[in-house]
Design brief:
Largest sheet: none
Order of helices and strands: HHHHHHHHH
Shape: globular
Pfam family, one: HD
Oligomer: single chain
Keywords: Hydrolase
Protein name: Putative metal-dependent HD superfamily phosphohydrolase
InterPro entries: HD/PDEase_dom, HD_domain
CATH topology: Hypothetical protein af1432
GO molecular function, one term: hydrolase activity
CATH class: Mainly Alpha
Structural class: mainly alpha
Helix content: 55-70%
Number of strands: 0
CATH superfamily: Hypothetical protein af1432
Distance between the termini: 46 Å
CATH architecture: Orthogonal Bundle
Mean pLDDT: 95
Length: 192
């Protein structure tokens, strides 16, 4: 467990520093707060799903690095995140097979999400953990503003509400934990 904490804590410090220094100012949603929330959610869901220490380490590293690509680009940021993670993990002497698994988990967060195994499912559910938060509307306003700044997209309040309700209706959590614990909270957030 000590080794796991050391590598994840070192990764967190590295990513935090890079995001603080290099993340574009228009990343109102995809910021350090989102990264830390996803990391905490990954630990929570991973433990609830009975992941081993090794599996938890891999998926937590993926959570920490999953949106670092926003430093360089918005569309396709997952592949940049994979590159950043691989470069840093290789410098740490992290095993290549584990780096591949971290990379696969990061790639699984690309929308629409398509996880192929339990670790990828855990990260995908943690990445959209905010869908179950009481503050979900506030998170969505941050995303709305981010899209306006990044892509020039402007939504009326009605169109934004419809877009969000459609997303909530179409979204499905992947892990048993998220379906049992998060889905009921998400359902309560739908605006009629």
């Amino acid at each position: 467990m000590k080794k796991q904490k050391r590598i994840t804590q070192r990764a967190s410090r590295y990513v935090t520093r890079r995001l603080i220094r290099e993340l574009p100012h228009n990343r109102i949603f995809h910021n350090i707060h989102h990264t830390l929330t996803v990391w905490r959610g990954t630990k929570m869901i991973g433990k609830a799903m009975g992941l081993s220490k090794e599996e938890l380490e891999i998926v937590c590293l993926a959570a920490i690095f999953h949106d670092t690509g926003h430093i360089e680009c918005y569309v396709g940021h997952e592949e940049v995140s994979v590159r950043i993670a691989r470069e840093w993990l290789e410098k740490q002497g992290y095993p290549p097979a584990k780096i591949d698994r971290v990379s696969d988990c990061i790639r699984a967060t690309s929308m629409p999400q398509d996880p192929r195994n339990k670790l990828e499912q855990v990260l995908c559910d943690a990445d959209l953990l905010h869908l179950s938060f009481e503050a979900y509307p506030d998170y969505q306003e941050m995303l709305r503003r981010e899209w306006q700044l990044e892509f020039g997209l402007k939504y009326t309040d009605e169109d934004w509400e419809l877009t969000n309700n459609t997303f909530l209706a179409d979204h499905k959590y992947f892990t048993d934990y998220a379906r049992q614990e998060l889905e009921p909270r998400k359902q309560q957030l739908k605006v009629d």
